[in-house]
Write a structure and sequence with these properties.
This protein is mostly helical. It contains 12 helices and 5 strands. Strand 1 and strand 2 form a beta hairpin. Helix 2 runs antiparallel to helix 5 and helix 3 packs antiparallel against helix 4.
């Protein structure tokens, strides 16, 4: 019953968050979080660097996914040191890859791709685990079970990517096609449930001039599908059904990525099929390849995630991700300060 209550509570919490996000985040108000003065000009105005809710929500999503992964690794009786070594090594490869692949595919320096980072990660994670396993016996520790660990990685990814799509709503990126130009079936389906973005600084505005128009809420649909997939896969994981959890998370998330690309209007590279769709399809083919089963214990994982070292590392990771993804590279600001004479 503990496992079911954990998953149910998590699902209710995430449902309330998504409900709030889809109502608020398309508004202009929810793009910029803060502007930091950097340089003063001759007129007395300050030029600032902007920090966005995209960065805040992305940092929240990634740290939530990493924290959940630590819990699941702990449930597999993987020690904190080993778990953190694997996770940080994979992140050290995937985070830079999110920018490199976007530059390669889209030809843009100031953008990121989670699809590309995931594709790199799904090959990096097994290699890192095998590398760590080569040293564990000499340290008197048992090897990491490959399939359960990869199932944990895919579950954490499902939640992280699902929550990360809320950041895309805030920034107005990864946006859907115009509802008026979509198939009649899609028009009927999203007639009452669509997005209308406001604000000239949102990507949907400056890249496609589609602000103020009804578009398919592809980011919200993706968030719901990924989070629901994560919840079901998490329950399978806690029941000890690691291979079904892995295959389900891989097939649904990457299958939806292939399909959802046909509903989007933003630029994702040249060609009829995007490179990201091809990456997702190749990732699906990888899913049925592996298979080793053991048993997971949730409470053991919860003990590890509350360790002071883990908490500090998660906080440090949040700061790194917020600065990396939150500092806007496509906008600037002018700031002026004045005294409130009535309060002096």
């Amino acid at each position: 019953m503990t496992d079911e209550l954990f998953v149910l509570s998590l699902g209710l919490l995430l449902a309330s968050l998504v409900h709030w996000a889809v109502k608020r985040l398309p508004d202009e108000r929810w793009q910029f979080l803060a502007s930091v003065p950097v340089m003063k000009d001759a007129s007395g105005h300050w030029h600032g660097s902007n920090f966005t809710y995209y960065g805040l929500l992305t940092a929240n999503a990634l740290v939530f996914g990493v924290a959940l992964l630590i819990v699941l690794f702990g449930a597999l009786r993987i020690s904190m040191g080993v778990a953190l070594s694997v996770i940080l090594t994979v992140l050290a490869v995937c985070l830079p890859a999110s920018k490199w692949i976007a530059r390669l595919v889209e030809g843009k320096r100031c953008t990121f791709t989670i699809a590309g980072a995931f594709f790199v990660g799904i090959f990096t994670a097994p290699a890192v685990i095998h590398g760590v396993n080569a040293f564990l016996p000499s340290l008197g520790a048992r090897p990491i079970p490959i399939m359960p660990a990869l199932a944990a990685v895919l579950i954490a990814y499902s939640f992280g990517e699902g929550l990360g799509r809320l950041a895309c709503i805030s920034f107005g990126c990864c946006y859907g096609a115009l509802l008026s130009e979509s198939h009649p079936l899609l028009q009927r389906l999203f007639n009452q449930w669509h997005f209308i973005f406001s604000g000239k600084m949102k990507k949907i505005s400056y890249a496609s001039a589609m602000d103020g128009k009804q578009v398919i809420p592809v980011q919200a649909v993706t968030a719901v599908i990924y989070l629901c997939t994560g919840l079901v896969s998490l329950l399978l994981f806690l029941y000890g059904k690691f291979t079904p959890a892995f295959v389900l998370a891989m097939a649904v998330t990457q299958g939806w990525r292939v399909l959802s690309e046909t509903l989007r209007a933003d630029h994702r590279g040249e060609g009829k099929s995007s490179v990201y769709q091809i990456m997702a399809f190749l990732a699906i083919l990888l899913a049925p390849v592996l298979g080793i089963l053991t048993r997971a214990e949730l409470l053991a994982g919860l003990e590890i995630v509350w360790h002071p070292v883990t908490v500090i590392l998660l906080q440090a990771l949040w700061v790194v991700i917020f600065v990396m993804f939150g500092k806007s590279m496509v906008t600037s600001s002018e700031i002026s300060f004045h005294l409130r004479a009535d309060r002096i």
